[in-house]
């Protein structure tokens, strides 16, 4: 039976939102065991908690997840939906949770964050919400909740969305907020990675290489231990694209191939990015069009869960097939792209 149907059925049966969480619970990055506590206050940079009568402050950048005392079960199902790319299911669940039925201001803020975040994911995957509308929703959230701990997540997502809208200056503004985060090298690194992607989009490989090397330096200095493996793969792929933009195709291919060899088979996003990066480095070289298509096919056939990367692979293959004079395959892929990402 569909998980979404079960949740909605049970909610309708009891006539209220089902609540399962009985304490605030925070999980730090790189740790499996959650901290049961009471959240006392928060800022964009820190969450202050009471744990057994002792007060502690946790930097937001070191937090993996937060679940709230009294939160509806629908919240966590929606979070799982979002992780699995089931954005419409998440939206259906969240719209059933009425703000007036939530007892804590934190729960109201979390509901509104999750809805705005969900609309943004739908927009990025070519759904029924435009990028401009979703971005406006996130901006509205920031104005309403300027001290909420999700501020940096929203800024990061706004940066990604502005890249997709080719609004590079706005994207850099949002990513720049993360680079100034207090007491959080992890957030700073994420901001730098976003800024590097802007420079790649602007075809500025030389400056992009400098930015990705800043992330490399943070890794080498031990500042990102909790997310070291993730950051290594991300800055390496950024560097590979910068190498390709500067004409160092051999280094670009070697770097992308190294990431492919290191990445977990279950990590769809990293693999899609790696194969796309390899494809980009190959398609820029004379006589490598078919090799590039093979690279992009890996994303299309095996790692298509990330809509932005999948769309990049499809668009690249369309361009390559046209370059090779095969308009039939190009039109077939164009039709698929339109069907998936209107």
What does this structure look like?
The structure is a single chain. This protein has 15 helices and five strands. By secondary structure, the protein is of the alpha+beta class. It is 64% helix and 9% strand. The protein has helices spanning 3-14, 73-83, 87-96, 105-124, 131-144, 151-164, 168-179, 185-201, 205-220, 228-245, 249-262, 268-283, 289-302, 307-323, 327-340; strands at residues 24-28, 35-42, 46-51, 54-59, 63-67. It starts with a helix and ends with a helix. Strands 4-3-2-1-5 form a five-stranded antiparallel sheet, with no helix packed on it.
Q: Strands, helices and their partners?
A:
Blueprint: H1 3-14, E1 24-28, E2 35-42, E3 46-51, E4 54-59, E5 63-67, H2 73-83, H3 87-96, H4 105-124, H5 131-144, H6 151-164, H7 168-179, H8 185-201, H9 205-220, H10 228-245, H11 249-262, H12 268-283, H13 289-302, H14 307-323, H15 327-340
Helix pairs in contact: 2-3, 2-4, 3-4, 4-5, 4-6, 5-6, 6-7, 6-8, 7-8, 8-9, 8-10, 9-10, 10-11, 10-12, 11-12, 12-13, 12-14, 13-14, 14-15
């Amino acid at each position: 039976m569909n998980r979404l149907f079960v949740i909605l059925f049970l909610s309708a049966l009891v006539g209220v939102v089902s609540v399962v969480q009985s304490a605030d619970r925070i999980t730090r990055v790189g740790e499996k065991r959650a901290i049961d506590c009471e959240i006392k206050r928060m800022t964009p940079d820190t969450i202050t908690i009471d744990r057994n009568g002792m007060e502690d402050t946790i930097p937001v950048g070191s937090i993996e997840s937060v679940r709230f005392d009294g939160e509806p079960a629908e919240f966590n199902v929606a979070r799982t939906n979002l992780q699995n790319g089931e954005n419409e299911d998440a939206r259906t669940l969240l719209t059933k949770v009425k703000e007036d039925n939530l007892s804590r201001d934190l729960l109201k803020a979390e509901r509104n964050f999750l809805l705005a975040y969900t609309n943004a994911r739908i927009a990025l995957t070519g759904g029924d919400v435009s990028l401009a509308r979703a971005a406006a929703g996130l901006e509205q959230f920031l104005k309403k909740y300027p001290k909420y701990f999700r501020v940096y997540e929203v800024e990061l997502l706004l940066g990604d969305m502005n890249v997709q809208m080719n609004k590079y200056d706005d994207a850099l503004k949002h990513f720049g907020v993360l680079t100034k985060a207090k007491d959080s090298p992890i957030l700073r690194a994420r901001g730098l990675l976003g800024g590097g992607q802007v420079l790649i989009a602007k075809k500025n490989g030389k400056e992009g290489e400098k930015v990705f090397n800043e992330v490399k330096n943070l890794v080498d200095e031990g500042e990102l231990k909790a997310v070291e493996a993730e950051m290594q793969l991300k800055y390496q792929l950024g560097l590979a694209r910068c190498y390709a933009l500067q004409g160092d195709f051999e280094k670009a291919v070697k770097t992308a191939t190294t990431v492919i060899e290191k990445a977990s088979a279950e990590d769809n996003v990293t693999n899609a990015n790696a194969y796309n990066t390899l494809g980009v480095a190959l398609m820029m070289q004379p006589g490598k069009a078919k090799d590039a298509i093979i690279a992009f096919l890996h994303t299309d056939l095996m790692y298509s869960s990330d809509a932005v990367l999948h769309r990049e692979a499809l668009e690249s293959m369309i361009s390559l097939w046209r370059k090779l004079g095969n308009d039939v395959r190009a039109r077939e892929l164009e039709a698929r792209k339109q069907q998936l990402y209107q």
